């Protein structure tokens, strides 16, 4: 450890500065990605545009999928720094700073100062945890609040008769309430299952009191249900019903076409949380030198990890960040294993060496191939190599490469294998070299590779949306779901002033209600129908993918094709144009 970090104040300052340098620079350099990043940013933009901060809206309609806390944070940043990618991602960058500070603090309390520093270091150097602090998704804050609630429960159950019992109960309830306000009831389910499994493994030993439970429940209800109660008192109970229905549907069905096999999240964590994931496996081994409190904490972490992993393996919807709460116990256990290895209490097993080499080479080669896309394009674009016509057209994008990007993968392989070789020679300090190599790699990938991937995948559509925004045109997508046209097209709610649209909406709403469907959920469909066939007061633009081009050319003759670019096709309908009859 650096000798001058001899006080907590200096350590906290050092961590905050390093975290800020890691997570804040360059977060506004890349357009937001569909869906989740743009979804939340658009909700925040609409809060700012309408000056309505009590209700979450999407397309200026009630949006029931998420509570408002994270969107409030984005709206605050947009008010301070303007509506931009930087403002949309700044809350998660700040969450990165807070998280590393929290990990040091919690690690120090659960073990010692050295453990807290190593835990924060390991977390920052792990691939997906680092990446998420550069994003604009809701999960970093959601996960942090749940973890802090669990942390308070860890401290309480270790010493249920402690003098700070009520304070611990209140903090645990507040953090769980904040998690509920961030993303919803999954916070309660995860925490409840973790507590239940922990008590089951502990053979139901008495570890709390009714007073603790009462304080915990009261603070949780006051904080967590504050917004829901406010909406109910305002008469917006339909939003709460829709919110509950959505949460149930997410658990039971493959929402938004995001399905996957049972082992999906096992693979995500193994690869996405490299190198910590391999140390996690080693951490399952028992250590004779652990104190009773360390054993107690380790059991809690294992419970949290396996509850989250198995729960979201059962859930039908499979999205990468659903298992991201695992990052906290995973990196805790990785830090635990690193210290045991450094102190030579654990030995480097053959499987650990083989796993490290195998994953390093496979991931490094993947990074090399991504960096060689420009060289591989002639091969990939040959007929029959790629079946997806949209992906083929994406690859035709004119993206500037420096020609050296493949070296990132080489650096990754060389750095980790060199460090591993030194560790196997008993130079245990090089175990940190493995994590530093991971940190440098993910930083280079974010800075130099991710912007190029964005140019292939969605940039043509975003350019079109921005052009429509400059002209003030209506804009929609046909054939695929997107939120990019709302945010980058700067869609406003002027349509509410259009008498023709109001009449059409009222007529279609009655028809939709008659068949038992939600009018709010169908709003985008109603809007598109009006833009395609009714009397519009200004040009309406449409974006689609090449997969639907023939169908649209034949079925929407009122549209004029503007151009095709990188897998997207763009159309316009002028006021007064009608669909031809065949």
Describe the structure.
The protein is mainly α and 582 residues long. It has 3 domains: 8-347, no CATH class; 355-457, no CATH class; 461-573, no CATH class. It has helices spanning 8-23, 36-50, 69-81, 85-110, 113-125, 127-132, 139-158, 165-182, 186-201, 210-224, 226-233, 237-252, 264-272, 276-283, 292-314, 327-342, 350-371, 373-380, 389-395, 407-424, 431-457, 459-471, 484-488, 499-514, 523-533, 549-555, and strands spanning 57-58, 61-62, 474-477, 540-545, 560-565, 568-573. The strands form 2 sheets. Strands 3-4-6-5 form a 4-stranded mixed β-sheet, with helices on both faces. A two-stranded antiparallel ribbon has the order 1-2. A hairpin with a 2-residue loop joins strand 5 and strand 6 (568-573). Helix 1 packs antiparallel against helix 4 (85-110) and helix 5 runs parallel beside helix 21 (431-457). It is globular. The N and C termini lie far apart (78 Å).
